[in-house]
Write a structure and sequence with these properties.
Layout: H1 2-10, H2 12-20, H3 25-52, H4 59-66, H5 68-101, H6 104-115, H7 122-133, H8 138-145, H9 159-182, H10 188-195, H11 200-211, H12 213-228, H13 232-237, H14 245-254, H15 259-295
Helix pairs in contact: 3-15, 5-6, 5-9, 5-12, 7-9, 9-12, 10-11, 12-15, 14-15
Length: about 300
């Protein structure tokens, strides 16, 4: 009888234990992605960190944070990225608003205009701005023909030219998250505010703009973090005085052949980008909680 009891009840906890630790079916779907990320992201990143710390020495990092040139380049990178972020969001906001509330034909036209640049390489788009911004380019010809200026403006090899080229490239990345948020906003809320006596501007500032803040935050995060790593556009449209950190990294690898310092600069750029991303995330969470408390 005891044998029968053990057969019926003794193995039950063992079977329950085995079922409880059985891997979920979706875990197998993550294996290819995990292998790919390990081989082509984690391992190269660890290798880069090892190169930047030869024999465990932090000399390259000390050199970065004690050399005025490197600090100036890092500061210039953040300054340009911040300006580009603001301009990109300001330009993208009305564009996304027109896409979200302009009707089917407007949406189709603006979507095509937004997505066509993706079919052209980044290098060609940057070269096109060289043609437009040079002293004999189309923009200066229009300014001279209309009498707005009596001599060509210096637009290329300046921070203005770099900002224009970067905004052009980053615009789709800012428009799409804004459009996604704006599409869900009901314009009848503005009509209701007008019935209550508010004009369009007051209704927009008090109702529509706060509701679109998640899209603004997402667009700002994308524009800023992507701007920090720009290389081609600043190289073609900027001057050596306005060099950004990605150009400095490329120069250490390709010209100076200082792989340790180049790797350390790359790690610093990655860390600073992560810090900026975290700050934006905290600010976004704070704004959402504040708006939620205000509505409550």
């Amino acid at each position: 009888m005891s044998t029968t009891f053990n057969d019926e009840f003794g193995d039950r906890p063992r079977a329950t234990f085995a079922r409880s630790f059985r891997p979920a079916p979706w875990i197998g779907l993550l294996v290819p992605s995990a292998i790919f990320l390990s081989l082509f992201f984690i391992f190269p990143l660890l290798k880069l960190i090892a190169i930047s710390l030869p024999n465990g020495s932090t000399e390259f990092y000390r050199q970065i944070f004690t050399t005025p040139l490197f600090l100036r380049v890092i500061g210039e990178t953040f300054r340009v990225s911040f300006i580009v972020m603001i301009v990109t969001v300001v330009v993208a906001y009305p564009y996304a608003y027109a896409m979200a509330h302009g009707g089917r034909k407007v949406l189709l036209l603006l979507s095509i205009a937004l997505l066509i640049p993706f079919w052209v390489s980044l290098l060609l788009r940057s070269f096109s701005w060289i043609i437009l911004l040079q002293n004999s380019g189309l923009i200066n010809e229009i300014l001279l023909a209309t009498g707005l200026t009596d001599r060509p403006l210096r637009l290329i090899r300046t921070p203005v030219g770099v900002a224009v080229g970067m905004v052009h490239i980053l615009l789709p990345y800012a428009v799409l998250p804004l459009y996604t948020v704006m599409k869900k906003i009901d314009l009848r809320l503005l009509e209701a505010s007008a019935i209550c006596g508010a004009n369009w501007l007051r209704g927009f500032l008090r109702i529509y703009l706060p509701l679109s803040l998640p899209g603004i935050a997402a667009a700002a995060i994308l524009a800023f973090t992507l701007s920090l790593g720009f290389y081609i556009t600043p190289s073609l449209l900027g001057s050596p005085r306005d060099i950004m950190i990605a150009q400095l990294i490329a120069g250490q690898f390709t010209e100076q052949l200082n792989f340790g310092l180049g790797a350390a600069l790359a790690i610093v750029l990655m860390i600073l980008t992560a810090v900026a991303f975290g700050i934006f995330g905290v600010a976004r969470t704070w704004l959402q909680s504040r708006n939620g408390a205000g509505r409550a």
